[in-house]
TrEMBL record:
InterPro entries: AlkB-like (IPR027450), AlkB-like_sf (IPR037151), ALKBH7-like (IPR032870). GO terms for biological process: DNA damage response; fatty acid metabolic process. It holds the Pfam family 2OG-FeII_Oxy_2. The lineage of its organism: Eukaryota, Fungi, Dikarya, Basidiomycota, Agaricomycotina. This is Alpha-ketoglutarate-dependent dioxygenase AlkB-like domain-containing protein. Coiled coil: none annotated. One of its GO terms (cellular component) is mitochondrial matrix. It comes from Lentinula detonsa. It comes from the Eukaryota.
Length: 234
């Protein structure tokens, strides 16, 4: 389990609930590139042929190895119009996004992926898990919501890759109790127990607290309740 870290003023506004754990610099830049490239590969393969062709035509001349090890992280994303972002989720919470449940990682195609995933697995509170990829467009957002207690486990872990975004936590019991956490690329957090079910959480489209908005990839890992399945968003 992650140890609870002190937050710098640069990362935090408000008071953080005790069941929220955060490491702002868990993954190196090289690990971030590998994870983001692998996640994009999986999502891109599931897309329509029309958008696959558009991505092929727009892709950088850099080969895969160069893109992973040399290009800035933001350049691994193609322009927004190369992706088939959906305008709204079935529950109305997510806007301008694409997503998938991940059953396997392309470890053979991306050197360094296995060690990065092993590091991530070492901090998981339990092993019966489900992995979900969520790609937000530059203007994508996740509206305030509380996780479904009847269809979710005790915890959810989020990996942030790409543009810095703000995670906002709002107490359901006290609307004035609000915390905002800057989630830089390479950071991970775990929400568990009360912070999942007694706080609304959202990912803001933009904020003066962050330096603008760009595309963001989230790797979401959660524990699974037997006989239940549910998508969690943050």
């Amino acid at each position: 389990m992650l140890s609870r870290r002190l937050f710098s003023l640069a990362n935090l506004r408000g008071t953080i609930p005790s069941d929220f754990h955060f490491v702002p610099d868990f993954f190196s830049v090289s690990e971030q590139r590998t994870l983001l490239s692998a996640a994009l590969e999986r999502l891109d393969a599931a897309g329509s042929r029309r958008f696959q062709k558009r991505r092929k035509n727009s892709r950088s001349k850099l080969n895969t190895a160069a893109a992973i090890y040399e290009a800035p992280l933001s350049e691994l994303f193609l322009p927004d119009d190369c992706y088939e972002f959906l305008q709204g989720h079935y529950d109305g919470v997510i806007h301008n996004y694409r997503e998938m449940h991940l059953t396997s990682w392309p470890t053979a195609e991306f050197p360094g992926l296995v060690p990065a995933l092993s590091r991530l697995q070492s901090v998981l509170p339990s092993s019966n898990i489900q992995t979900h990829l969520l790609h937000l467009a530059s203007d994508g957002e996740i509206l305030p919501h509380v996780d479904n207690v009847s269809a979710s486990g005790r915890w959810i872990l989020g990996v942030s890759l790409g543009s810095d975004r703000i995670l906002r936590l709002e107490s359901c019991a006290n609307p004035d109790e609000v915390a905002e956490i800057l989630l830089p690329s390479g950071s991970i957090y775990i929400q568990s127990d009360t912070v999942r079910y007694q706080y609304k959480h959202s990912i803001l489209r933009n904020s003066a607290f962050a330096n603008g908005a760009g595309q963001r990839m989230s790797i979401m890992i959660r524990d699974v309740l037997e006989h239940h399945s549910h998508t969690n968003h943050s």
